[in-house]
Amino acid sequence: MAGSLTAAVRNHWVTSGKSVRSPHHIESVIESAVDALVERGIDRSWIQTGRKASLPASFGLGNTRWDIVIIKDEIPLGGIEFTAQSGTSARMNLPNRIHEATSRALAVRSSDQNGGLQPLLGLFIMWEQGSGTSVQPRLEAALNQFLDDELYDEIAYTTCNSDAELREPVEGMSVQRFIDRFSRRLLARAVGPLEVVTPILEPYREVIEAARGEKKDYSLERVPKQGGQAAVFRGVHKASGIEIAFKRRLSQWSKAGARMGREIEIARILSAHPHVMPVLDFEAQHRWFIMPLADATAEEQFLQLKDPTHLHRMIKSVASALAEAHRHGWRHRDVKPQNILLLHGRWTLADWGTVRRPRGQTTFAGRTGAHIGTPGFAPPELFPGPHAPEFPAGPHDLSVPATDIYSLGRVAAWALTGQWPQANIPLLPTEEPWRTIVEEATQHKIERRPQSIAEFLAIIDREHGKAGRS
Q1: How confident is the model at residue 65, as a pLDDT?
Q2: pTM of the model
Q3: I want to staple 406 with a disulfide (CB 3.0 to 4.6 A). Which of 154, 379, 464, 465 is the partner?
Q4: For 247-283, what is each residue's pLDDT tens digit?
């Protein structure tokens, strides 16, 4: 699907045979990128290029110029910068290009104005290696630093030698991946109805089809449940009378806006999954969103979950949601009883605000310091403390599927023991098969835990099989 864009990148360099031309004009590549966005569902009327392409200063985004800007209903959804360099100038100008890319993203990311609106940012790098052997490693180090600093959400990186063969040297930075993920994430951030109403969402069809990001479409009925990051109101969709939950963030800081934006984006992308709490409607500036009104949290179902049969069903449901998220490369990082919700008799996982995306897909505001998640449920690598082993990398670099598996094991331990876990202190049920299951899932060392949800579920089946034979 990205073939025409890849061809445009190749044609940008090659004029005839194996000659490489100077990359001063990349209009054809930008035009192909626009076509690729439109093919993937982005309305052409949202896209601005040329002199019109700037993220507006009215949103505190630095009035920065981008090669492509996507704006819907006057709300900036994203921007893409294209840069190309060849030959000796590539080597000589590398520091300047890195500085320009850094400054452009920082002008957007460092603003706390307008409630923390954070558009998606993409960087499209086209580099002719020339004769300088030091350029490519230096450039790749800079791109990795962009991702570590969470300046850009998606990066495409291609190189071309004098042999005129186009290369994509870094996994996760291909043209195909860039355009597919950037488009999908733009659509998830665009206010409006979900593209598909699955049978699971059928009870909320009227809410979904009327979604337009307007708070006046809902009436709020009760005093909210207050959390550390947001307040959740019980409410009603006025036009249909359908009960909903209205979640409003408490802080106007940019990091809070980015956190809620992540929660909305990922819940929308995973909305077809039966065990993911969907987002039905939201405000474009990510100050609130609408979700179904849950029957209860796992915490409120504490007594029922002491029954191993009920617990087994809940754990497998949440594991299913995590498996789908992990398939996309996302880690939840805050699995706990309050974020596991019962909806029409079905367990769902909610609150994706602390999600860690794979390298190259993180957002600037996602970095939360040395501690991530909830004490007692967060694994030692995300919540270092006196009882945690030493890890060679920071918590952001250690977000792997095993981090969520640890937290899910702690949820099982909490349910069966009746004790709230303490950070990094083992907590095991007394009886099998769950004692062994929890013990394997909550090892302090990452490599000793199950490395995937499939492996974790296999352990559950194995231990239940043993219990059935005894």
Answers
A1: 83
A2: 0.83
A3: 379
A4: 999 877 767 778 888 899 999 999 999 999 999 999 9
Identity of residue 87: G
Which CATH number, 1.10.510.10, 2.60.40.1120, 3.40.50.720, 3.40.50.1220, labels domain 296-469?
1.10.510.10
At 450, list the tokens.
Answer: 């199950």
> In this structure, how many other beta carbons lie within 10 angstroms of the beta carbon of residue 466?
12
> What tokens does 154 get?
């998606």
97 vs 74: CA distance, rounded Å: 30
Q: Which sign, positive or negative, has the C-alpha torsion 246, 328, 272, 456?
A: negative
> Measured at the alpha carbon of residue 239, what is the angle toward residues 233 and 243, in degrees to the nearest 5?
35
User: What is the DSSP code (8-state) at residue 404?
Assistant: H
Return left, alpha or beta for 55; rule: phi > 0 is left, psi -120 to 50 is alpha, else beta.
beta
- Domain 199-292 in CATH 3.40.50.2300? The answer is no
78-115 per-position pLDDT tens digit: 999 998 877 666 667 788 888 888 888 888 877 655 55
Which residue has 């309050």 as its token pair?
A: 338
Backbone angles phi, psi at 405, to 5 degrees: -65, -40
> CB-based burial of residue 106 (10 Å sphere; 0-12 exposed, 13-18 middle, 19+ buried)?
middle
3-state DSSP call for residue 410?
Answer: helix
